[in-house]
Amino acid sequence: MGRKYKIRDSDRLYFVTFTVVEWLNVFADDNNIDIVIDSLNFCQQNKGLEVYAWVIMPNHIHMVIGRNGKLTLSQIIQDFKRHTSSKIRKYLQNDSGSIMYQILVMQGLGNTRNTDFQLWQQHSHPVEVSSDKMFDQRVDYIHMNPVKAGLVEFPVDWKWSSAIDYNEGKGFLELNYT
Question: Looking at residue 22, what DSSP letter applies?
Fold first, then answer.
């Protein structure tokens, strides 16, 4: 049986969610967020990743993304997740006694697809963005996520988001616009 969520056409835009295993608040630490931002920038500049909207929450990331170039969207996502997992693991290893690091090691040991560490849940639940209305709905959902979580009062107050870009400011990533 095939998966319900699957990237079927790399030339389309997708709403994706990258979730940390056990919903651990890995991104409560700005150093881990910097790793994600740096990796996304690298993927944009070197792998053809297009970012239309994004938010980094304490334990997950939402994005509307596309691609241009030779790599498929699935390949770009796989490279992003592998790289960020490796970098965040190295950062967390400095505090190897931490509960968070121990949980991520246990998750990796318990998953046959990994060897001894797992940061991300296996799937990114890609949903093809099939219309302008759906695009606007997903962008609004992304930008309202920190508000609904009670982290800020207004979307532009969450600096780990493209909401500022949609309000004539400049965020941490270059955005593509439809």
Answer: G
Q: Decide: pTM greater than 0.85.
A: yes
Task: State the Cα angle at 71 between 113 and 27, rounded to 5°.
Answer: 55
Band (96; pLDDT cuts 50, 70, 90): low
Instruction: Give the closest residue to 77 by CA, choosing from 87, 66, 92, 88.
Output: 66
Unique residue bearing structure tokens 């090691």? 105
Measured distance CA(153)–CA(143) in Å, rounded: 12
Mention every residue, 6+ apart, whose C-beta is less than 8 A from residue 175. Answer: 51, 52, 53, 162, 165
Rounded CA-CA distance 149/109 in Å is 31
- The secondary element (H helix, E strand) that includes residue 60 is strand 60-67
For 7, the token pair is: 């990237």
The encoded tokens of residue 76 equal 């770009």
Band (pLDDT 50/70/90 cuts) for residue 2 is very low
The answer to whether the Cα torsion of 4, 6, 12, 18 is positive or negative is positive
77 CB-side CA count, 13 A: 26
